[in-house]
Amino acid sequence: MSDPIWYYARGESEQGPISSAQIKALAATGALRRDDLVWKEGMENWLPASDVDELFPNGKKKAKDSPKEKEATASTKENGKPTPRPVSRPSLPPDLDMAQVLRSVGRGLVVLGVLIVLMSRGCDSLGVRKVARLEALAEIAESDFQRGWDREKSSLEDEQQSLRDRGNLNNVEQQRLNNLPDEIAKLDREKKEEQRNLRRSKWASYQIAAEDASSSNRTWAYWRQVGFLFGTMVLAVGLLFVTPTTEGPERWICLVMLTVILYSVYSSNSVWG
Prior knowledge:
By secondary structure, the chain is α+β, with helices and mostly antiparallel strands. The chain has helices at 20-29, 67-73, 98-166, 171-200, 202-242, 249-265, 269-272, and strands at 6-10, 13-18, 37-40, 47-48, 77-78, 81-82.
């Protein structure tokens, strides 16, 4: 008995002739869908592939064709082969590749998780740097003030020491030497007075700004930590979706990343502290 010749159609596109082995291979790989129409020599009309036991043994068997369905599958013969006409049945969605769907969703979650982790850690670092900057401004202001007064005092002390070392001073030089201790003492008093004023005004504003920034940073650190943990969870779920649907190097990379997250993030006391 010769191998029958098969034809199949999807929409307005008809394919064939092909052998029985070829059409069965198409059905096994999914290239031939259950709602595609098929016909072979000896069949009266085109039928949905799902109704042909040779192609889909587990497909539902029809008890009887209704008159409407018979009318829908009826066709005119052309060169001994009927012309396919679509079956009047609700349109079925195309077969979905769940592995591809999971892989796509997983990759999207991985990207989203990485972005959340980077943003939470980046904002945390910026908050710490802002506090450090304001504290440094206060320290620099006091250091600049101290250096300015120290230079002026050092100049008077150097002049005093120079006059003492010379000896045989004239009246003007001797008078200058006698006045220098009073000028140094006066300079110290002026320095202390200006220092008190600055601590109540300019330096105080620097210190208050640094303290406010530190308090705000500690408050937002909690929410940044929550965001970081949420991001790692999203990343872990994405890796769990991607890992079983990939092969080769990508699967191993996902496994390594998942291991690092589970061990270093969720086993680290610093994350929860």
